[in-house]
């Protein structure tokens, strides 16, 4: 191509030191025209004394967008081939061009800052298209790298999960917990940071209580109560966010005189909060469930129970199921599993739904969730819990994969 030939000729004639630094900066220019005035003839006046005059095309096209980088390449070659233009004058050309371009960007940024947000976004979008024009082959390479990395990463994650589930689970939880707040710190999204901090402080306290030895008799109820509340709140936020998005897509927001962008942003925000905190709360609940049940002694993740389960004792919280001669006792509903073991309904719900367990806490026999929770209002909770498992990959591992792809593209010089 003509531009490529100009670049090659310029590098040979001028040398890399003078040319490359200028072109590296000039290539970021996407539209507009810069004119050098009052030169009074190239042969007599150095370009270092040039003055800049600026012309803008707000729509990015105008009479036809002139890419100043291409003009500069051709101009550098032309000047070198002219008579009576020495090396000193040529070096001044690059400096003057950069000076003028710096003034151009300063003024351009001032003009953009005065525009409405929608118009400013459109101009920035146009800049991006102009910057990457002619990079189709490079973009195809980047797409292939992305697809290959996704496939390889998926295989690695599946194998890791199958062979070392505990370490995979802990790494996923750590990524779920820290990666989103890292992005929020980078971009200054303070609202999420405040909510995340409150959730983290309370959850850290609950996890601390669950890991104490010996465990307090009230700790299991406290743990399950907190995570069940978080589960219900996240479920509610997810439903409201989903309905808000659907209402916006159907145009129902106009009935309430709400702008589509406001309604959509509100729905997506609630949907993200509900899904994210629902997943993180479930993962922490599972960790606390294993820890508490193991310490109580009626459950071990891999082996036999540490002690015999009394028929009148709940194998999850360790408290009696039917309390006699106690007027202050709270009478709770019980739930009997297929293996004939009885638990507090509140405890077994926390164990199965919140803690993601589908086996008996004592004998590990598989629990029939449909039989346990026959109400149609309970089944959506179970389906929603399965949905949260899919979010885990997108939040914990997808950002890491994208960063890896960007690193590969950078090392190969792809943009």
Topology:
Layout: H1 2-14, H2 16-26, E1 33-37, E2 51-55, H3 68-81, H4 87-114, H5 117-131, H6 136-163, H7 165-187, H8 190-210, H9 219-250, H10 260-296, E3 334-336, E4 342-344, H11 345-354, H12 369-372, H13 379-411
Helix pairs in contact: 1-2, 1-3, 2-4, 3-4, 6-7, 6-13, 7-10, 7-13, 8-9, 8-10, 9-10, 9-11, 10-13
Descriptive overview:
The chain is mostly helical. The chain folds into 2 domains: 2-134, no CATH class; 141-406, no CATH class. The protein contains 13 helices and 4 strands. It has a two-stranded antiparallel sheet with strand order 1-2. A two-stranded antiparallel sheet has the order 3-4. A hairpin with a 5-residue loop joins β3 and β4 (342-344). The longest helix has 37 residues, at 260-296. The protein is globular, with a radius of gyration of 32 Å. Residues 1-7, 13-70, 82-96, 98-105 and 324-329 have low confidence and may be disordered.
Number of domains: 2
Instruction: Kindly provide the radius of gyration, computed on alpha-carbon positions and rounded to a whole number of angstroms.
Output: 32 Å
How does the major sheet shape up? Answer: 2 strands, antiparallel
Distance between the termini: 19 Å
Q: What order do the SSEs take from the amino end to the carboxyl end, as H and E?
A: HHEEHHHHHHHHEEHHH
Q: Helix amount, in percent?
A: 55-70%
> Residue-averaged pLDDT, rounded?
67
Number of strands: 4
Query: What is the count of helical runs?
Result: 13
Q: Helix/strand-derived class?
A: mainly alpha
Task: Give the low-pLDDT segments.
Answer: 1-7, 13-70, 82-96, 98-105, 324-329
GO molecular function: ubiquitin protein ligase activity; zinc ion binding
Keywords: Membrane, Metal-binding, Transmembrane, Transmembrane helix, Zinc, Zinc-finger
Subcellular location: Membrane
InterPro entries: RNF121/RNF175 (IPR040176), Znf_RING (IPR001841), Znf_RING/FYVE/PHD (IPR013083)
